Each structure stands twice: as C-alpha cells, then as structure tokens.
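Listing S7. Sequence submitted for prediction.
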Amino acid sequence: QVQLVESGGGLVQPGGSLRLRCAASGTVFSHRDVMGWYRQAPGKERELVAAITSGGITNYADSVKGRFTISRDNAKNTVDLQMNSLRPEDTAVYYCHALLISRYDREYDYWGQGTQVTVSS
C-alpha cells in the first residue's frame, strides 16, 4: 500500500513562487512509475500539470512550461513541484499522483488528498 502526502500550498501574490512536495510511504513493487502533479480549479476538470517518470523523463502542461519544474528524489521518496511566476489562473487544489507499473504490466493508481494553492493580490 502507498500513501501520498502533499505539503507546501498556501497563498501567494501573482509573480510569486511556491514549492510543493509529495512524500510517498509504504511498500511498493513497481517496475516503473510515473509521478505527477494534477490540479483542479472550481468548476473545471482535473488536469495534469507535470509528470516525471522513474527514468527521469518529464512532461508539462503548455500553460506551465517555463514556469514550473518537477523533480524527484528517489532516496527520500519525494516529488517536488517548483512553481515560479505564479498567475491567478494557477489557483487550484494540487494533487500528487502515482502511477505504478509492475513487471507484469499491472497498473496501480494512488492519490494524495491535495493542497490548496491560491494566487491573489
């Protein structure tokens, strides 16, 4: 079983920065994985913000390219999202997500409970 806990959310002014951290715990048997940050704003669908694979390959939503950076520390089982040049439209609940893929091609999904990010002057 895997538990994901997010931290680092809060209130920030436009143009400011925040760093979110996702800490994973529990026993995981995975051949490979994709760790990601999603966000959901009021009245909108949940969307992928950034993802990073166990091989270090990253992917970003067009809206955050050049502003956000995802990274992982496998020794600490953490995934960070550095958010710079924040805009009001970045306001959302941010969720950590783990997609674990076994060597038998079985997939397992885990979600954190979310952390609120509010960008407002």
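Caption to Listing S7: primary sequence and predicted structure tokens for the chain studied. The two ends are 41 Å apart (CA to CA). The CA atoms of residues 49 and 63 lie 8 Å apart.
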